[in-house]
Amino acid sequence: MPIPIHWRDDPMRASIEDQKIVVLPILGDARGSLCVIEGERDTPFPIARVYYIFGTEAGVARGFHAHRTLRQVAVCVRGSCSMMLDDGRVQRTIAMDRPDLTVEIGPMIWHEMSDFSDDAVLMVLADQPYEETDYIRDRARFVEAATA
Ligand code: TYD
Question: I need a surface site. Which of 15, 18, 68, 131 has the fewest CB within 10 A?
Fold first, then answer.
């Protein structure tokens, strides 16, 4: 069992242990269910962007990158998928199979999403607008930067 190493305050030293997985309260009544994600309460940042992935073809995996600075929280609001997080040292795979489960993807966390169900809708809340230069898409470079 590896000893978890925390690199708090250094975004180039992200740790799997710091990626919060939170089960939201479900506000249900006779009409059905409702979950709330409020910026700076249920996300550790003000929300600048929301995007969602759906209609994913069978067998497709997505992601395969890390961000230098972007902070994100993901929730599979319908269906299910698998989320693999990797800090360059330790990997963790999370089954995203309930609409009340939020998973943090901080800076310098390599992530890969797979096993999308036909009906999966993966919603992601982010703290910055889209910026391609923030991506690290080369895995070897990521590992080098994350473990330097
Ligand atoms: P990408 O982040 O590579 O998708 P994934 O990580 O799920 O595999 O984005 C796919 C394409 O969509 C890419 O051409 C960039 C574009 N895109 C935007 O224009 N804005 C966005 O907010 C996102 C997330 C992607």
Answer: 131
